Amino acid sequence: MSESPVVIQNKLYVPLRDFSEALEYQIGSVGADAIGMIPKSSNGEATAYINKNSK
């Protein structure tokens, strides 16, 4: 990974780009409220979103 994972207040934070690539996804879009992830074998449609503000 480009950066080491860290734990802050019992939550694990990982470099998202490295983590998603390990799961065979790529970052498709980054918005104010969500990050779009696309399977590497996909036709380009975003199929998963991660809410950056979720608890």
Report on this model:
The protein has 55 residues and is mainly beta. Helix content is 13%, strand content 40%. It has 1 helix and 5 strands, in the order E-E-H-E-E-E. Strands 3-4-5 form a 3-stranded antiparallel sheet, covered by helices on one side. It has a two-stranded antiparallel ribbon with strand order 1-2. The longest helix is centred in the middle third of the chain and has 7 residues. The model has no long low-confidence stretch (mean pLDDT 77).
Nutshell version of this structure?
This protein is mainly beta and 55 residues long. It is 13% helix and 40% strand.
Question: How do the helices and strands line up, and which of them pair or pack?
Answer:
Elements: E1 6-8, E2 11-13, H1 16-22, E3 25-30, E4 34-39, E5 48-51
Antiparallel strand pairs: 1-2, 3-4, 4-5
Shape: flat
- Run of helices and strands: EEHEEE
Please, what is the average pLDDT?
77
Helix proportion of residues, in percent?
A: 10-25%
Measured between the Cα atoms of the first and last residue, the distance is 24 Å
- Proportion of strand residues: 35-45%
**Low-confidence segments, ≥5 residues, pLDDT <50?**
none
How would you describe the oligomerization state of the chains in this entry? single chain
How many H/I helices?
1
How big is the Rg? 12 Å
Side-by-side strand order of the widest sheet: 3-4-5
Number of strands: 5
Structural classification: mainly beta
Biggest beta-sheet profile: 3 strands, antiparallel
